[in-house]
Amino acid sequence: MSKKSIAGEELFAARKSASLHRMANRIAAAFEQAEDEAAPAPETAPAEADEEKDDKKKKEKKETVTSGVANADGKYGKASEGNGFNGTIDYFGTTATVSNAVFELKNGRLIWTDGTWEDGTFAYGLWKDGLWKQGTWMIGEWENGIWQTGIWQYGTWQYGIWQDGVWENGTWKNGIWNGGTHVDGWWEKGIWKNGTWNDGTFWRGTWENGSWNGGAFWYGQWTTGVWNKGQWCQEGTWMGGEWKGGTDRNDAWHAAGIPPTKWSK
Questions:
Q1: Of the candidates 232, 224, 228, the residue with the CA atom closest to the CA atom of residue 207
Q2: Any residues with CB less than 8 A from the CB of 51 and at least 6 apart, and which?
Q3: How far apart are CA 259 and CA 265, in angstroms?
Q4: DSSP classification of residue 185
Q5: What is the per-residue pLDDT across 18-62, written as a single tens digit (0 to 9) for each?
């Protein structure tokens, strides 16, 4: 075999070897890519996981806020730990100073669970329980608690103890009224211990004492007090007191000193 032929074969073998080497590299790379694609991706990317942790921490922090200014949606104070919120509320018209309070601000509404309302304006929401010291109640529903004094503008009172203050209007479902002025509204039932009633409808309940200046008294029991004027609708029970004049359900006038027990049937 000539030297030329030998040289040609060696060149061909070298080229073949290089080609095989390149092919092997491409196959290895393809396998590596396939393995990478087949490998399960992490459940949450590190950045996303960090964001979720931050959001969770912020949420937990908001749910356990115990002081400062409450002015955004969220939960404040923690009843289970006895760790109430101390500070101020400034939220959609509600401005107040509170202590040891547990409540939630949600969609413009205050949902009060418990605590002490020191002073301020309750714009709108739900009161579940607690102590109200003073302030102005604009509108909402009261479930239970103690009201010391203040101005009630409108809303529904389910139950509780009213110590003093001015009731302008609304619906009283049940509870104990110790004193203050009732301007107008609907009284469904409860115990009226003392105070001044200016107007409204007393539907059922027990009137123990106080001054009646107007409105309609229906099915309740009148124990004693001063009746200055108004409409006695005859289904009630008159036990005693001072009658200064008023009408019956038919608007017939009954002069002073002639209470319902002396009316002709």
A1: 224
A2: none
A3: 13
A4: -
A5: 444 454 455 445 445 544 544 454 454 455 556 665 555 454 444
Distances (CA, A) of 180 to 174, 255, 257: 16, 27, 26
Question: What's the CA gap between 250 and 203, in Å, rounded?
Answer: 17
**Mean of pLDDT over the chain:** 85
Query: What value does the CA radius of gyration of the chain take, rounded to a whole number of Å?
Result: 39
Tokens describing residue 222: 């009148």
State both tokens at 76.
């404040």
Structural tokens at position 134: 């003073």
Contact by Cβ (8 Å): 200, 182: yes
Amino acid symbol at 111: I
Q: How far apart are CA 122 and CA 143, in angstroms?
A: 15
Nearest to 216 by CA among 233, 228, 241: 233
Q: What's phi and psi for 160, nearest 5 deg?
A: 145, -175
The DSSP secondary-structure symbol of 42 reads P
Over the stretch 139-157, which tens digit does the pLDDT of each residue have? 999 999 999 999 999 999 9
Domain coordinates in residue numbering, the chain = 149-265
What would the two tokens of residue 242 be? 């001072």
Residue indicated by tokens 């309070």:
101
pTM, rounded to two decimals: 0.76
Percent of the chain with pLDDT over 90: 71
CA distances for 14 relative to 4, 19, 24, 25, 58, angstroms: 15, 9, 15, 17, 67
Place of tokens 């490998």: 39
Helix (H) or strand (E) holding 52: helix 46-63
